[in-house]
Q: What sequence folds into this?
């Protein structure tokens, strides 16, 4: 997956954290067929919003 962003001929010792962050952002924002052509970040955000809104209360405060 990294080869979509970084060329195959790049020396692995020259890869910076910023380059890896960019590759991760590109990968997470890429629409996927398996997710109904939504990006991973979009599906994750919808899941988190649904979890916060609909989770049952575990503790009761007196």
A:
């Amino acid at each position: 997956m990294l080869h979509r962003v970084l060329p195959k001929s790049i020396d692995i010792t020259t890869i910076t954290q910023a380059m890896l962050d960019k590759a991760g952002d590109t990968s997470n924002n890429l629409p996927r067929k398996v997710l109904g052509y939504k990006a991973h970040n979009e599906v994750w955000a919808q899941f988190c919003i649904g979890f916060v809104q609909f989770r049952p209360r575990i503790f009761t405060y007196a």
Q: What stands out?
A: Helices lie at 17-28, 40-54. The chain has two helices and two strands. The chain has one domain: 2-54.
